[in-house]
Amino acid sequence: MRIAQRRSELKKTLFVPGILMLSALLSGRLTAQDMQSNENHAQYIPAISGGLGYIHNVNGGVTSLIPQINPVLLVPFGSHVLLESRTSFIGFFQRRNLTSGPFTGKVFKSVDYAQVDWLANTHIIATAGRYLLPFGLYSDRLGPLWIRNFQDTPITAPIGIGTSGSGDGFMLRGVATQKPSYSVQYTAYFSARSDINQLQSARVAGGDASIFLPRARLEVGTSYQRFLQDHEINSVSTYVSWQPLSVPLDIKAEGDYSYNGQGYWIESAYLFQQLPIPSIFRRTQLVGRMQQFFPKNNGGNNLPSVETNRFDFGLNYYFRDDLRFISSYGRTFSSHGNANIWNVGFTYRFLFPLWPGRAK
Amino acid sequence: MKFFSSYFSVLLLLAGILLTAGAKAESSSSTQQQNTASQKQARSQPNGEEIFRANCVRCHMPPSSMSPRTTGTVIMHMRVRARLSHQDERLLLKYLAP
């Protein structure tokens, strides 16, 4: 009985990636032979990308081993239609009695997104299927492990991501207007409620708008979401992202508000690229983050129930642009107790073509 | 809490220094650029490299190289993720897979 149930679960888990792989094979035939403009030699062939990593985490004396891989399948049909999907396989292993005994745990599987995008023009990119709910800077943009400066997401990350982080429905996004000195971007979406295994989502609607100043490399944006099932609530986020031209510095900040609480985080990352030190050390990145969270209505929805403050410092080292060593130390302060959090590990970004393509 | 306020102060100070330096650099460069109309024109029209540098770092370390075989697919993916315009896509492809 249990074997049959496992088989059924495995079938369900492999169904979406299986369909996508089949599409990849079919699209390879269609796209490898076309799409080459006079301007460039770019080709549109199926590819597999994603992140791979291993994190050794110690939180309040409890050790967790977290290996993970998040393959992203990209299947273009010409230059205007893209089928893309990301599946996460995250292992989580702890000692049986938390601080003693052998390590035990399991691998969690989830389909983060499986969507079809129609890149109609500059102003409209229409998406249907399962997509990441765009809210603030995380989830949609800084979610992948090879992108994040810190592996631990901010305390406010659960705000605005529904019940699973993904939505099932449709989404419109694009560039509302673009000038050499600025561009205004938007996203609007609606997600239906779903209880299907691996495709869980909440009934939500929302949007995001941001203005990006490319010369200053400054972006300011805001997100709004209305949760439309059970207790209907609003969530709002405002964010800033700045990468000054003259200094290899990355500053990001976000303030989030929801029925369950509000908070903010500020993060800065400095790459030693310009320092007068041996070149081998110039690949080092120093990162820092501080955050505060204030619960409302006793918190909940994966948010703390008491006021929580936290700071983190980290040191990352880029062996290459796609491979880095990561380390960080953080401390949380709350009335439930203070705790030290350590993270050590590595992340790797991979990209492989799934179709031979043409020689240039 | 003391830590937070000092961290915040340092961050603000750093931002102030960078803003001042950036404003100075921009004012001196804009003075030079007023010299010729063609330079002004070149500045108003960003090229593929500028788009690449400005947009990739918004989220991650820019890749040092990319195979022309996968460039079209990856730029499509990034156009969706980063909400790039069709013109950005065209110039990026011209720069990355000339």
CATH architecture of chain A, by name, is: Beta Barrel
Low-pLDDT parts of chain A are 26-36
**Oligomeric state as shown:** heterodimer
On the 0-100 scale, what is the average pLDDT of chain B?
Answer: 72
Considering residues with a beta carbon less than 8 A from a beta carbon on another chain, report the largest interface and each chain's count.
Answer: A-B, 70 and 56 residues
Largest sheet of chain A: 16 strands, antiparallel, barrel
Task: Assign the CATH class of the largest domain in chain B.
Answer: Mainly Alpha
Report the helical percentage of chain A: under 10%
Question: Pairing-aware structural class of the strands and helices of chain A?
Answer: mainly beta
User: In DSSP terms, counting alpha (H) and pi (I) runs of 4 or more, how many helices of chain A?
Assistant: 1
Q: Choose one word for the global shape of chain A.
A: globular
Shape of chain B: globular
Q: Percent of residues of chain B in beta strands?
A: under 5%
- Tell me what the CATH architecture of the largest domain in chain B is: Orthogonal Bundle
Question: What percent strand of chain A?
Answer: over 45%
CATH superfamily of chain A: Porin
Encode the helix/strand succession of chain B as letters: HHHHH
| Spatial strand arrangement across the major sheet of chain A | 1-2-3-4-5-6-7-8-9-10-11-12-13-14-15-16
Q: Largest sheet of chain B, described in full?
A: none
Number of strands of chain B: 0
Structure characterization notes:
- Chain A is mainly β.
- Chain A is 8% helix and 55% strand.
- Chain A contains 1 helix and 16 strands.
- Chain A has one helix spanning 2-31; strands spanning 47-59, 62-77, 81-95, 103-119, 125-132, 166-179, 182-192, 204-213, 218-227, 233-242, 249-258, 261-271, 284-295, 308-320, 323-334, 339-353.
- The model of chain A is unreliable at 26-36 (pLDDT under 50).
- Chain B folds into 2 domains: 1-45; 46-98, Cytochrome Bc1 Complex, Chain D, domain 2 (Orthogonal Bundle), CATH 1.10.760.
- At the A-B interface, strand 2, strand 6, strand 7, strand 11 and strand 13 of A face helix 1, helix 3, helix 4 and helix 5 of B.
